[in-house]
Amino acid sequence: MAFVQNRTVRVSELLSGTFAELSENRKEVGIYLLAFLIAGMVIDLSGPLGSILSLPIFIVYFVAQYYLYRAILSRGGVSSDEKIKIFSFFFMAIILGFPIYFGLSLLLVPGLLLGGKWLMAPSFLVAEKTTLFEAIGASWHASSQNLLPLSVAFMLIGGMWFAAIAVFGGAFSAIFGSLPFSGLSSALVSLGVHTLPLMLMGLSITAYKALREPDASLAAVFE
What we know:
Strand content: under 5%
Distance between the termini: 6 Å
């Protein structure tokens, strides 16, 4: 029986890969951000209609996320499943989001560990011919030998995002909030919220590409 070498990944590789994935797909990412910047301004300027417009934009958000995953995976040489799984993608966000959120809110460490275990689940779902729960299980299994670096990278991405929001969010409000077109201020702050899912997307794809298959480089030695 062939011996299979387990793949390992370092935190530095995960972080550099995250920003490399987003940089290599800057056109798609830029279009995504511009679309939601405009959407944010439209909601802010629509007054009472803004709450009505929020629902379709919320739906479009998951559709855009799904297709952006497909585009980045495709550019990275990973073919995506031809079956459209937008509903599964949406329910995955709900199923995984709540336990991670409560884990982070209550005790922090459980949330970080769950984030590391399920980090690759969206990439598995989009890239492979798998169901919602199979993708969740695949991520859990693929992360087993690298839970610490995955969880640390998850924590650092979140920390960088919070720090950036704290610094630039206040600056944007101070600069643009005094202008007549004050809707731009809230739209920019809203846009900042979209950057965290983008960073986690880059991290998910980086981890998936590194850990999705066992490293069989030593297998031939023992065959």
